[in-house]
Amino acid sequence: MQSSTSASSPSPGTSITAIGLDIGGTKTHGIRLEGQAAVAEAVSGSANVQNVSREQARCNLAEIFAALGTHGITRVIAGSGGVDTEQDAAALRELILEHVPGADVTVVHDTRLILAAGEAPDGIGLIAGTGSVAWGMAQDGTQARSGGWGYLLGDEGSAYWIGREAVRHTLRLHDLGQEPDRLAAELLLAVGVEAPDALIARFHADTGRRYWASMARVVFDAAQEGHAPSRSIIATAARDLASLVADVAARLGISGPVVVGGGIGVHQPLLQELLLAGLSARGLGDIRFLSQDPVFGVRYLLQGETA
C-alpha cells in the first residue's frame, strides 16, 4: 500500500530536505535528511492509529516534527504498520500534512522501509518483532503480503507469539501435574508470580502485548542453554516466519532478496540461524539481516528522486 500527495517534484539532481518516519506499534522513529545526510533524529510514541487514538497519534507526531523541525521540508516518506487500505494511508497522510502542509507526503507499509533499508529495489521484507508480517514487491511493481493481521488473528513467529507460547507451555505442565521446568521456572520469576495458575489472571490483565513480547527473551535464553521445549518454540517460530516469506515469494514469482528486520529478527542469532535454514530449504536466497534502523531506508527511497 502506497499513497502520496503531490507537490512540485524536485528536479533530477536537486538536493531536497526531507523527513523520514518509521511508525511502529510502540514508537515513532523520525529522521531529518539534508540530501542523503541525516542531520537530526528523534523518537516519540506510536502514531499508528490502530494502536493509539487519533489524538495520541497527533500528539506524538507533533513531538517528532517539533524535534526535527519543519522549515524547508519538501518531502516526507512515512512507513507505518496498519496501512492496509488507501483509507488508512490517507488518514495518516492527513495527520502528517498538519505539520508540513506544503510537502509531498508518501505513506507506505512499514515493511517497505525494511526492504529499502536493506538497499533492495525489489524483493521481500520480513518484520519479526512484536508482531510479524512479510511484504514483497516484484520488479514490475506488483506487491503482495502475508500476515500482519495482529496478535488476535495471527502474528505467528513474533515475539508476542513466543512469549505466549512460554505461558502455554508453563500452564500445560501445571495441568499435567508436573513441576515447572527450566523455561517455566524462569518465566514465573520474570513475571513475578509464584504459581503457574496465577499466569492466567496475569495474562488476561492489562499487561498488553508488548509486555508478553518482552518475555520472548526468557525462551531464547533457555533455548541457548539447551532447553529442548524452548528450542522447539523458536524452531516453530522460524518455520512460521519462513512460511510468510514463502507465501509472498510464490505469489510474486521471485526468490529474493529477503530482508529481515524487527527486534528478534535482528538481535536473536538462534532465530536467524533457523530462519536462514528454513528460507534456504524453500529455495529462497540472498537473505539480509538489517544492520541499520528501518527509517534509514528512506534515504534509499529518495535516491531515485534526486538521481
Describe the structure in your own words:
By secondary structure, the protein is α/β, with parallel strands linked by helices. The protein has helices at residues 54-68, 86-97, 110-117, 159-175, 182-191, 198-204, 209-214, 216-224, 228-252, 263-267, 269-281, 297-306, and strands spanning 2-5, 17-23, 27-34, 37-45, 75-80, 104-109, 123-128, 132-137, 143-147, 258-261, 287-289. It has a 6-stranded mixed beta sheet with strand order 1-6-5-2-3-4. The longest helix is centred in the C-terminal third of the chain and has 25 residues, at 228-252. It is globular.
Keywords:
disordered N terminus; five-stranded mixed beta sheet; six-stranded mixed beta sheet
Please summarize what this structure is.
The protein is of the alpha/beta class and 307 residues long. It has helices spanning 54-68, 86-97, 110-117, 159-175, 182-191, 198-204, 209-214, 216-224, 228-252, 263-267, 269-281, 297-306; strands spanning 2-5, 17-23, 27-34, 37-45, 75-80, 104-109, 123-128, 132-137, 143-147, 258-261, 287-289.
Distance between the termini: 24 Å
Report the C-alpha radius of gyration, rounded: 20 Å
| Mean pLDDT score | 90
Order of helices and strands: EEEEHEHEHEEEHHHHHHEHHEH
Which strand order does the major sheet show?
1-6-5-2-3-4
Percentage of residues in helical conformation:
40-55%
Per DSSP, the total helix count is: 12
The strand count comes to: 11
Instruction: Note the overall shape.
Output: globular
